[in-house]
Automatic annotation (TrEMBL):
Organism: Musca domestica (House fly)
PANTHER family named in the record: DNAJ HOMOLOG SUBFAMILY C MEMBER 7 (PTHR45188:SF2), DNAJ PROTEIN P58IPK HOMOLOG (PTHR45188)
Alphabetical keyword list: Repeat, TPR repeat
Protein name: DnaJ homolog subfamily C member 7 isoform X3
CDD domains (alphabetical): DnaJ
Primary gene name: LOC101893448
Amino acid sequence: MFHIAEEKKKLGNDDYKAQNYQSALKFYSDAISLCPDCPTYYANRSACYMMLSNYTNALNDARTAARLDPAFEKAYVRIAKCCVAKGDIIGAEQAIKKIEELDPQSNSVNAEKSATQQLRQLEQTVQSNYDAKAYRNVVFYLDSAIKLAPACYRYRLLKGECLALLGRCDEAVDIAISVMKLDSTSADAIYVRGLCFYYTDNLEKGIKHFELALQLDPDHKKAKEMRTKSKTLKDMKENGNVLFKTGRYREAQSVYTEALKIDELNKDINSKLLYNRALVHSKLNNLRDAVADCTRVLEINDKYLKALLLRARCYNDLEKFEECVNDYEAAVQIQKTPEIKKLLRDAKFALKKSKRKDYYKILGVSRNAGEDEIKKAYRKKALVHHPDRHANSSPEERKEQELKFKEIGEAYAILSDPRKKMRYDSGQDMEEHDQADIDPSHVFRHFFQFGGGPGGQSSFNFEF
């Protein structure tokens, strides 16, 4: 039986040297079946498993070899290598210590000694950066650790967690799923998968994964915290939406504000909460606050169309027409619908109108002012700014009053003429001669000489 086992080992060695590791594995397993108490066979199969990156089985075989022969140095070398690959620093250090006891002059694990020292230092650096929430740094140092310990699930899953916290959920999901394929009962892997759902606004699935992680490990602190946070955020978001739909805007605003404090890293959910709060602000006519919230949304996601359209509408109501046009132009780039194109045309038209003189503002009347109101306003302002009233003022003051008097006359000439007023109100360009022909003094004289006062009565009289 031993002779046949040795033949199997020899065939395994030949295949190992030829890098036919799967075939070698079979021969070593056959040898072990024939002689299960031979430490060399386990050590050889351990080496084979290592070449196949199956460090768990490799470590089991190396430990079996060491148990069968406590003085088998090569078995401890295998243990040290496997422990380093799996990120088990204590296990590696114990194996190295045993080798040094067996042969104080041995240099067979110098590389593993160096690796364990580096891993200890990296783990301390990783922990300090994690505590400081410097997740990018954590990922950087973990990449170095993973090069030394490629089979360490702990390092890979911590990297996955930090990637999720950084919003790089696609990469985090790949890590979680790759570990779950190898170990479907890994609470840490399921926790990271739950984080990815949570940070992509799928709170329901996130909660389910956190609960599953807790079933596998009831003491999983992070899963417990995230389950509580997810449920709280879900409840507050839904409550805010109900309050908004029932018109209880101030209460909704308060709920959304509190919900935004729960997790500043959850950009997907926070962008929706901010947009919802912006809607509330717009309903309460807090337009500047609505713009501020929409701006924060767009800083998170510059393709958030609803926020872009809402901010454009608020800018329009605030008469910030250039900003309104800019937002609608950005919206058209995202979605070229007839509705958005029309909004853009209307905004450009409003911008064009805003750059003309605002005759209503010059006279100090509203856009729906009637004929008598316009006359009253003109009479009052014309008397205040008439050049004769400021004959004794400084040259600068006289010039300023003359300009105002001219604008008032121009405004009255346009708004008191039904045809010109209609064209002005409709946004049409006023022909240059419509304004160039206006003599403010002529308008003034005509107004007071021909009954321009309210009710058609002439009533010009300066009070110096």
